[in-house]
Amino acid sequence: MRSFWLSLLAAVAGGLLLRAAFPGTALWPLAFVGIGLVLCSLMHRSAGGAFLVGLASGLAYYFPLIAWASLFLGPVPWSALSVLSSLFWAGGAVLVALAYRRLTARWESGARRVIFVAAAIAGLWTLREAIYSAWPYGGFAWGRVAQSQSASPFAELVSWLGLSGMGFVMVFLVALTLELGRARVRPQTWVTAAAAVLVVAVVPIYPTNEIGSARIAAVQGDTPEAAYFVDGDPGDVFLGHVDATLTIPDDADVDAILWPEGSIDLDPKTSTGVRRTLDQLSEQYGAPIVANAVTVEEGASADDDRFFNSQFVWDAESGWGDQYDKKHPIPFGEYVPDREFWYSLAPDLIGLIGRGYSPGERDSILEVGDIRAGTYICYDIVDDVLIRDAVLEGATVLFAPSNNADFGKTDEPAQQLAFARLRSMETGRSIVQASTVGLSAVYSPEGRVLAELPWYEPGVMIVDVPLADGLTPAVLFGRGIEVTLAALGLGLLIGAGSSKTRRMNTATVRIPRR
Description:
This protein has helices at 4-20, 30-42, 47-65, 69-73, 75-106, 111-132, 158-182, 187-202, 236-245, 272-285, 339-345, 347-350, 384-392, 412-427, 473-506, and strands at residues 209-220, 256-258, 289-297, 306-315, 319-325, 365-368, 371-375, 397-402, 431-435, 440-443, 449-453, 459-469. It is an alpha/beta fold.
């Protein structure tokens, strides 16, 4: 597209279609159409033009994708996060446009151009996603293109390549198709490309080893009082989960009872009533309770106290057992980084976040009886490193306690649940997600739905959850795959520029004889 305005229109349309691939519309094929329009909008663009076009597509993508953030903190934080995310998107767009210009000049036609251009574009897309998933302030890994494919035929690819590798393949296939239409290639190349798409679509999930099962009761208390800005009496959330738990039949013979994030809104270490109730429930069902509360590590003074979002094991015989502290609290939601600086810019907004959580330092494995449960509290589930580390440390099942009360009936719970399904396939582990208000579900190591609950209804899922060991390629090599693919894109871009410079430096000028 040589017209800037046509490119701008394509960029906006691409961003909107890509967002529509995610839950709640969940029209996964639109991800490929959206990526295609975004890439088309960056062809023949200068660096400045690519930045503007990329910014437009990023805004069209992120504003509707994370509209749920406005319900939690209002329009200003939602807008700020959307704009920041779009600026990273625009920076990546500049690299993509530069790659199109350099690599198409290096190879004007042929199969090598098709493959190298597609690989460079996909690698640079992966690079941008990898950087923004980790930086600044721990990054924002929400909205990577692979997350749109939890219900698609391509989903099982995640067990081999991880989310970054799966995203690379998606962008590569789209870029490859576009280059086949632009470059002069033999018909055999089209056949080879079609075969590649078919192979990717039918790749089976990488199998892990089932080593038994555990009967888990996952509780959804239907407690909107768990939301940050919803008024309620202390103990309302706790009692809601107690009431839901008491619907478990006495003869259920469960191995563990999982409560969600924010399920205890009192201090179990100082509240005799909470401890007594937990003892009674654990004794009644003969199983430990895996609950959540705020814990405090006291410092030299009250100002030095550290607060943690903690999931812990409670057993009638031994009381408080193993504990995991959330490692990835949400910046500007659960804590404020560089608080003095941001408070000087927006004191009313920053003042709403009175207590900041510290990142946890414990390992994410909870020992629940004989079960080794890799545990991710809510937003933790977006962190690739946390996911891989728990499985490498021996997790046989994954727990994902979550509090979605702040987001109401928006698309956020469905987007998070899609994340959970991908994580089950990526790791080859069952995953149990329990939410205060929903959505709650249990997935097998193959991503099959074993149980689910409607949102804003109290309930319990009692499921014989498969336990597994063995490591998928995504867990073993996920970080290396991401780095390699990102380096490939950057290397092809730099290499094409260096090649152009060498040709210019070695060119000779013929001087006519007199």
